[in-house]
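Page 37, top half.
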Amino acid sequence: DWNDDTNTNIHGAELLISTPDGVASEVNPIETRVGRLEMETTSGAIWLDNDGDVTIGGVSADFTGIRAGAGVNLSAFSSIQVDEPIDNDGNTVELDASEDIRVNAAITSGGGQVTLQADRDLFFSDAGSIDNETGSETVHLRADRDLISGGKISMDDGSYVDATDGLIQVS
């Protein structure tokens, strides 16, 4: 997986986690191999490394995407597709993919920093957006992070990035 740990904690087609506390930690993220993911925490952060393509959403009608009481930190050794919202309460949202990131829904941070890093491309559909909602934190958009094969950021009409009083860094 992305952090070179050989142990996969959860392997399956879909994963739904709902907990009052956080999921894993920065030094020991939960390691998965799932195709679809939805998560909810009341007060804690989410730390997850996925081996393979992962889509946020489409698991359960009772949940919508990822909702965290603290930060959202998701990496994928492949691509990430955001089909349902990612939202947290004023902390960092970080998505890191070894291939592409496709944003087809809202990503909101409640005032926290937002970072999307892809070794290849970032795509925003007409429904894709980033909004840190309040404050002056920076939104970082990085394509071709590995500096190997080039990368681009593509935004369809209707998509947007709003850093409120912060900066938008594009590279």
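Page 37, bottom half:
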Amino acid sequence: LALDLAAAGAAFLVAGVGPQPGRSTLLNTRILGLAASCDPEQLQFAFLDFHTRSLGAFRRLPHQHDYVGSATGLERSLTALKDEVARRQARLEKLYEAATGDFDSAEAVGEWPHVLVVIDDYDRFYERAGDAKKLLADLISRGGELGISFLVAGNVSELPKDFDDSFMRSI
């Protein structure tokens, strides 16, 4: 099972029904596989892990961009990612303006490390995200074309069912 972050899009969902269906195991396997196949200069992870702490062991990966283990750090982390999106967008615009011929934005974005935001137990995360939901929505809508993707796992029967949730709209 390959996961091409650049070609496949900005949002990926691992869903299961009921307790213990293997969502976290699949998520952990994907993280380890990506970390083994990519250098930290190619791929970085931002772990948003303040419910079950199932991603805590990955804090030691050299690929770690950020780790949030509590709701209090969430807004700081998402703001830093939003700043990264703005920095990448500004850099892309400068490269476009300086280009004399055809411009391939995918080639330029490919030179930056891809950032994969990983959230386990998204259903619980969403309940506790509060005001940070707006930042999350902005990242999901703008980040994909700039090399920032989301890998989310949750219980399908408990995921947000309305379209006020930006992640659910994007998949």
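Margin note: The two ends are 19 Å apart (CA to CA).
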